[in-house]
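Exercise 7.
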Amino acid sequence: MKANPVNPVHPVKTPWPTVRLGEVLRLDLERFPVDAATSYPMVGVLSFGRGLFDREPIENGKTSYRLFYQLKAEHVVMSQLFGWEGALALSSKKFAGKYLSPQFPTFLCDEKKLDRDFLGWLMRRPAFWQDLGSRASGMGDRRRTLNPEALFKCEIPLPPLAEQRRVVARINELAAQIHEARTLRHQAAEEAEAMLTSHRRVTFGETPQGDWIPLSNFVSRIESGKSPATDGRQASSDEWGVLKVGAVSFGIFDEHENKALPVSFDVPSALEVHRGDFIMSRANTVELVGACALVRKTRPKLMLSDKTFRFVFHQPRNVLPEYMEQVLKSPPLRYQIERGASGTSPTMKNISKEKVLALRLPPFALPEQRRIVSELDALQAEVDALKRLQAETAAELDALLPSILDKAFRGELS
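Solution. The predicted structure, written as tokens, is:
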């Protein structure tokens, strides 16, 4: 097939000569016939320059391939299927001796001309992936393939080895600083979250106390929804949707976590989710079962699923929904919920209405509830602000490395 008609990639002008990769890189395939009696530890290549990863081993000849390639620590690896989106990587001692399918050709650098780490950083540039993509054959992104010849035809800047090593050292230094900054921001967000958890412990303690009262003192009944067959996609704004398990996490309701219901399904009006509803996840992982949220805003035409509960409070109401939201994610309530969850699946646990209504809560009166909510909401706002800042900073840091690589391979990195 002919290569896809994409815009050609113009090489960036540099003070260095350019060469085709085929002049400094050669194919090196260590072929091993597949033996049904042998277990093969397998390796794959992540897209977007994210490196190699360990895959599930292949045992008892459970493969259609007749041979595998064996990795050396010195190898450069390319995915023929996804090299055009950055599925290229350097091997290392960690992966030496492991195996690849024949879809992953391996190469060796000419060490007298090309520093392997210089090539490794160059292969992490989107411009390099675009160049490869212009040489891929096949129709449509998911069917484009690369062969070693396509890689060999790519042109790269090639300064003297000493300069290559200087550039690599400088990139490594800057990349380490970016990693450190990202780590510090992440640690700050984790510490803020830990502070919030610690404050909940001070407020509610670690375990239920003898004078605590059942949740049924506050909630008259619990309603659940239905989970009919869906169209498997998110509902548009004028369609009915049913909530997915991910619609409820701790204190957060996400209206986008839904699946479209068929037009033929008659939705019971009583199951529609409204602003002011208090809902809980009945089924989820151990860590998330029982997660709850006050619905502060929602689009219309969303229905409770059979994996979501809705609390109906006693009237006159003797509990603040905001307080219920806070206490149900405190350590002593999470302890009760996780102990009460059942199910044979390690990834999906359930809690019954009866066990939820039997959960024991501290008997705080409404004024004390308001004080607790005010304190914890203020702390939560600080944590959320810090997380937003961390996310914004992470995006800025993510943009730094591509900029550094562009400068490096234009010969402008001092």
